[in-house]
Design brief:
2 domains, about 15% strand, Cro/C1-type_HTH, about 45% helix, 434 Repressor (Amino-terminal Domain), Lambda_DNA-bd_dom_sf, Helix-turn-helix domain-containing protein, MLTR_LBD, 13 helices, Beta-Lactamase, about 300 residues, alpha+beta
Length: about 300
């Protein structure tokens, strides 16, 4: 992940993974009279459908050749890639589709801090590149964990999901949440292939957790987007919350994750109770005198 060769190798692995998920029937090819020993399309079938030579495609999968934008477009079409997967493919090839995104500093603007402060009935946190947690509000700390107690260099959402046992209790659908986190991390890895901290995180979690290792090798990618999460909270019980991702144009690497509940539902009532509890029990942080960046501290 730290060199052009590494990116080409990752691109080859991604192509192999997607090829293995497609049946001949899915792309309009006959299944054949004999069952295949290995599921998925053959290399020569992908090459033929993309109008390139089998040797060229083989070299792509082996990480020995770069691809042009036109070839990448054809492969994205043949392999039935989603929009997120297509973006990831181009990022790995060093040919971003659309406007290039520059990496931003892991700090938030005063306006964004104020936004989080003024969401009393919504849990909100800001994820930076590599899914580092760089800011949060009181309700997010009450809902998920006291982020301030995690050393700044370890304050990463994916690491928390896989290494903190409490997360497996907090999320009844832990496996779904964890898989989603891995797909998001894959997108960040393509955007920042030379980020040593991200590379170290992948090595750390691959070594420590078999699920992470398996899902990372699966090469599935997905943008953060929106969805629904279930929580089993020790204070207020069961909640079902909707989450949305907001992106600031001035800091495109920063994603504001906002969790809310439909008014009038038991989850909304529980979230309001938790917000009231957080107002009394979750300390507000003032200006830092300790040298810890203010942006890494919980928001009032």
């Amino acid at each position: 992940m730290n060199s052009d060769n590494g990116r080409l190798k990752d691109l080859g692995e991604f192509l192999r993974a997607r090829r293995g998920e497609l049946s001949p029937q899915a792309v309009g090819l006959p299944a054949g009279p004999v069952a295949r020993r290995v599921p998925g399309l053959r290399r020569e079938e992908v090459a033929r459908l993309a109008a390139i030579s089998t040797d060229y495609y083989r070299r792509l999968e082996q990480g020995r050749m770069a691809a042009s934008g036109a070839v990448l477009d054809e492969l994205a079409r043949v392999l039935r890639l989603t929009d997120d997967q297509r973006v990831y493919l181009f990022e790995l090839a060093g040919k971003p589709s659309g406007k290039a995104r520059a990496r931003s500093a892991q700090e938030i603007s005063p306006q964004l801090r104020r936004l989080l402060d003024q969401l009393p009935e919504a849990a909100a946190l800001v994820l930076g590149s590599g899914m580092d947690i760089i800011a949060w509000n009181r309700l997010a700390a009450a809902l998920i964990t006291d982020f301030a107690q995690i050393p700044e260099e370890r304050r990463n959402y994916v690491r928390m999901v896989f290494t903190d046992p409490a997360m497996r209790t907090l999320y009844p659908d832990w496996a779904d949440v964890a898989r989603k986190a891995v797909t998001n991390l894959h997108m960040d890895a393509a955007l920042h292939p030379d980020d040593p901290r991200l590379a170290e995180l992948v090595i750390e979690l691959s070594t420590q957790d078999a699920d992470f290792r398996e899902w990372w090798r699966g090469q599935h990618v997905e943008a953060k987007g929106q969805g629904t999460k279930r929580f089993h909270h020790p204070l207020v019980g069961e909640l079902t919350l909707d989450w949305d991702t907001l992106i600031c144009d001035t800091a495109p690497d920063q994603h504001v994750i906002v969790l809310t509940a439909q008014p009038g539902t038991p989850s909304h009532d529980a979230l309001r109770i938790l917000a009231s509890w957080a107002g009394e029990h979750v300390p507000a942080a003032g200006p830092s005198d300790s040298g810890t960046p203010v942006a890494a501290r919980p928001l009032r």
